[in-house]
Amino acid sequence: MNAPNTSGWKPGTPDAPTGESGIVTVTGNRGLMLEEPLIFEIGGADTCGVDLPEPSGGADRLGGLARSEPFGLPGLSEPETVRHYTRLSRQNYAIDCGIFPLGSCTMKHNPRLNEKVARMPGFGDLHPLQPESTVQGALAVIDELAHWLLALTGMHSVAMSPKAGAHGELCGILCIRAALEARGDARSVILVPESAHGTNPATAAFAGYQVENIPATPEGRVDLAALKARLGSDVAAVMITNPNTCGLFEREMKAISDAVHAAGALVYCDGANFNAIVGRVRPGDLGIDAMHINLHKTFSTPHGGGGPGSGPVVLSEALAPFAPLPFVRKVAGGFELIEEEDGVAAAPHSFGRMAAFNGQMGMFTRALAYILSHGADGLRQVSGDAVLGANYILRSLQDVLDAPFGKTGPCMHEALFSDRGFAEGVATLDLAKALIDEGFHPMTMYFPLVVHGAMLVEPTECESKASLDQFIMALRSIAERARAGDESLHQAPQLAPRRRLDETRAARQPVLAYEVGG
Amino acid sequence: MPRYFSEEHEWIEVDGDSATIGITDYAQGQLGDIVFVEVPAAGATVAKGKEAAVVESVKAASDVYAPVSGTVIEGNAALEDDPALVNTAPEGDGWFFKLTIADKGELDGLMDEVKYKAFVASL
Q1: Burial A416-453 (b: 16+ CB within 10 A, else e)
Q2: pTM for this model (two decimals)
Q3: Which listed site, A39, A306, A356, A431, has its alpha carbon 20 to 30 Å from A209?
């Protein structure tokens, strides 16, 4: 479906009084919050932001193929362009505005030092095709970061090139497949516990495996007996998230790994929640064979807070020979990149290349800046403070929000609540939308699937007690309204730039193109 | 025609050797607004308890399992354009697929309507 928007309908255009005042302005603006049309609606062909001289120097070389029709791009002056995007950005919410409690996302503050380092000319101005001799500093950064990741995880090797978490998962599973095939033991099934990240089964399926679920115990952890019962000669691997998506540490991880290895299979760990255990638990000690690390979560620079993703994968000794190309190798007097052209001799078992060039260089510099500025003791305090903050939220709200796993002990880095106790007709979605009116980005909703109407709150270590208290106060007030059946929750958000968006219509009849004059 | 129900909230209506399969009203209520449905193509074989179709709502994507094994006769093409049929008529026009039953003995493990209603009430 790719229908141009000919209806003129815009998502959630305010059709009700704008807030409690009931004032409707002629412009649609609300105070200094400005209503902003699409750039195509304000730009015209008669305006241009740049003033370039007519080309001179003879005939063009287009052979008569020069475009004769207008492009249709919106023309705007520079100040108009700046205002357009600045106005749009003011309708946005970001980690730089306030707490971003998305569970499973580790939306932590991105220290400005990271940005300073990433923009140093020796890093920021590099081209990936520069000769190796001119990028020795960058290769040293990759090598140094790799050593930190290995020290923190207790693993044997690390593949640095995967570009994000799910890409790292794929890298790990491809290593596992290569290792199994190398021993002539191709297997067909990957087991994924219910408490795993949603990308895990998608990765396994994408890599060509059948996916089977392993149930969770009533305490929200992997059912070890069910896992053991399912293991067999057809199982290639288990993909487990630890700490899991219920915000709980898988205490039986070592027993799980031992059982999986005894059955000839391998253990993949989703490391997206590594922030809860960094500096305290080394996955290598738990028998894990492969784990991706979201540099953009654990080591700052979250979505929208600095840069793109980056998902290096740490590997056990069994999987290390199958790691992808290229990789950095230390040699006498410097570093070299091992690429395909270095031939079979350099990496005889590598499963090949997964990405252009060498990984997300900008994220490597940011992550290393973060790690070095915290130091080993600082990283240990990061995980401690992250867990403390989550437990403060869990305990502060458990009298008004049901915490399904709150009775069995503390949570890790994220607090999980269910919709049990809400009045009939009030849903998690209503509560989340009401948080927007209170000035907060909502938490993760309806995930994990094992909890009804789930709300997953991850504050990270970056929030002060004052910030946590403010969030708790707002959520408490909304939870009390949800329990009392406050009908106005269905109207939320009432104060946001847009009212509640029609998610169903957006999915069933997406309008993905703007038609000029439409 | 007899109608049976699975613990995964599928219904199956048997007509001789063939059957029509969909998800129950309870299932659609739990999923919320359905925005996409993928049904198996005619000729595909499905196995009891294995994924046969996919249903996606604004909240979640879920697999729909085959309550019995068999060969697909027809997927409900109407769901492609109008997945909301699953919400409005889950146990009627919102059916997912029809199949030829491989082994009618597999029906024995399923619930009748009375038992299914009791099962849902217990959740």
Answers
A1: bbbbeebeeebbbbbbbbbbbbbebbbbbbbbbebbeb
A2: 0.87
A3: A356
